[in-house]
Amino acid sequence: MRRHRLFVLALLSNAAVAQLPPAPVPVQNPLTPAKVLLGKFLFWDEQLSSDDSVACGTCHLPEFGGSDGRLGQGLHPGPDLVFGTADDIRGSDGIHRQANSGDFVPVAGFGLRRQATARMSSSTLGAAHHGELFWDGRARGQFIDPETGAMLIPFEGALETQALGPILNPVEMGHEGRTWQDVRQKLQQVTPLALASNLGADLLAARQQHPSYPALFTAAFGDPAITAARIAMALASYQRTLNPDDTPWDRFIAGNSAAMNAAQKAGWLLFQNQGRCSACHWDPLFSDDIPHNLGLRWQAEDLGYGNFSTVPEEQGAFKTPSLRNAGLRPRLFHNGQSPGLADPAQWSDPASTLNVYFQGGGVDTSNLDPFLIPLNQVGVTLADVALIQDFVRTALTDQRAALRLPPFDHPDLRSMVQAPPRQFGPGLAGSSEPFLIDAVPSFPGNADFKLGLVGGPPGGLAVLTYGFQSIEPQLQLGSLPWHLQVHDWLPFALGGSAGAPGHTTLRLPLPNDPLLATVPFYFQLLALDPLAPGSISSSRGYEFFVR
Question: pTM higher than 0.70 for the full model?
Answer without folding.
Answer: yes
